Amino acid sequence: MTLRIRISWPAGHTTATLEETPTSKALAGALPISSTARTWGEEVYFDTPVSVPVEDDACQVVEPGTVAFWTNGDALALPYGPTPISRGGECRLASPCNLLGALDGDPRILATVRDGDPIRVELVAGR
Length: 127
Hints:
Blueprint: E1 3-9, E2 12-18, H1 22-30, E3 33-36, E4 38-39, E5 43-47, E6 59-62, E7 66-70, E8 75-79, E9 91-103, E10 118-123
Antiparallel strand pairs: 1-2, 1-10, 2-9, 3-10, 4-5, 5-8, 6-9, 7-8, 7-9
């Protein structure tokens, strides 16, 4: 079973497809979420009311557009390019994060998110 979520902010929106994992199930149970976007290099992240442990397949270096959960900050992390700790052009997260899925479209849409923007995450109907 997969879940689809919609992520919206003042300048745009995108959708993502999430795999069934303990973290994605916890996130789905907390939706909808309204939060405040933060940016860190070419990554958008924001607080959630979800708190989960690190999963066995957690990764620190991921592909652009990965939907990750940063367990140290109880936050969704959406990298679309290099962060301040990246080596070269990689997407390097602050620490190993749980992998939930991927954005459905071009992850560069996240470049329109500004630090401090309101951001909302909700389930997409008709899975």
